[in-house]
Specification:
about 15% strand, alpha/beta, single chain, Cathepsin B, Chain A, about 210 residues, 6-stranded mixed sheet
Length: about 210
């Protein structure tokens, strides 16, 4: 390759890298405007349980809330380590069980999505939730502040779950934020959700972006 061609390709690559790098903060800033302080954080989930951990709203809330709940079942990770492991898992598993590229659900090129998700402060989404479910063989029930009809159960793709974690998710107009939940002791998780809630895997609704402000 000639020096001219090498220089040209290097410049093009650098321009593309800078454009991608600048687009991620723009997405985060755009979403941050929806961060609305909540005066009564317990209220939306009062019928299901109570909040046991409310992570900082810095874009890492999904990973931080998951780490808190994973520790309860003997799996200890920092939110940074969990993020890195999830990204590594997605690099190795870029397709849904049906063979569709996960890129179809991201709205951007897969490499751009992966590099962005590795950054501290990038919001987790449904794809990262499915990855955690598959990595640790756990069900993840996401209780929405919009009510029971908006609650979703995520199940492992290729195995039987060994446990169930419960997250609370504040909808976009209520802060778009994840918290860790403890259900009321009298509630049977399976009974509460089995016939009422949609079961979601990678192949469905992977667009649901999570706590984009952790």
């Amino acid at each position: 390759m000639s020096v001219d061609r090498l220089s040209s390709s290097t410049i093009d690559a650098e321009v593309k890298r800078k454009q991608q790098a600048s687009s991620r903060p723009q997405r985060r800033h755009h979403r941050s405007k929806y961060r609305i302080p909540l005066l009564d954080t317990e209220r939306p989930f009062a019928s299901q349980g109570h909040i046991v951990y409310d992570p900082p709203g810095n874009g890492n809330c999904q990973f931080a809330a998951l780490c808190h709940l994973l520790a309860k079942i003997g799996i200890f990770r920092s939110f940074r380590t969990l993020r890195e492991q999830v990204v590594s898992y997605l690099v190795e598993h870029p397709y849904t069980p049906d063979g569709f590229p996960l890129e179809l659900y991201t709205g951007e090129e897969w490499d751009t999505y992966i590099s962005g998700m590795l950054d501290d402060g990038t919001y987790g989404d449904h794809i990262t939730l499915q990855a955690v479910s598959d990595m640790f063989n756990i069900n993840i029930i996401v209780h929405s502040s919009l009510g029971i009809d908006a609650t979703v159960t995520i199940v492992p793709t290729h195995s039987v779950a060994i446990d169930t974690l419960n997250l609370g998710h504040f909808a976009e107009e209520e802060g778009e934020h994840y918290v860790a939940l403890q259900l009321h002791e009298t509630q049977d998780v399976q009974q509460l959700h089995e016939d009422q809630l949609p079961v979601v895997t990678e192949a469905t609704d992977a667009k649901t972006r999570s706590c984009k402000q952790q």
